[in-house]
């Protein structure tokens, strides 16, 4: 059963994650978010729903 033999894929998996952690992750996390959080703390006045059977 070749699925149980870790030789072909363990090195590839380890090198891929090492590359991602050391090179790609800092580049990806350095981008600014496109949707900045809403810093307006105004609350909206909402009316409660009036149910016709009550």
Assembly state here? Answer: single chain
Number of helices, where a helix is a run of at least 4 consecutive DSSP H or I residues: 1
- Mean pLDDT level: 77
The percentage helix is: 40-55%
Structural class estimated from helices and strands: mainly alpha
What letter string, H or E per element, gives the SSE order?
H
Question: Which regions contain 5 or more consecutive residues with pLDDT less than 50?
Answer: none
Percent of residues in beta strands:
under 5%
Principal-axes geometry comes out as elongated
Descriptive notes:
The chain is an all-alpha fold and 54 residues long. 43% of the residues lie in helices and 0% in strands. It contains one helix and no strands. The protein is elongated. The model has no long low-confidence stretch (mean pLDDT 77).
Features:
elongated; 0% strand; 54 residues; mainly alpha
Quick take:
The protein has 54 residues and is mainly alpha-helical.
Lay out the secondary structure:
Blueprint: H1 7-29
């Amino acid at each position: 059963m070749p699925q149980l033999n870790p030789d072909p894929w363990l090195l590839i998996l380890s090198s891929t994650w090492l590359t991602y952690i050391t090179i790609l992750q800092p580049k990806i996390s350095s981008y600014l978010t496109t949707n900045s959080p809403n810093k307006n703390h105004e609350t909206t006045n909402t009316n409660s729903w009036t149910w016709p059977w009550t």
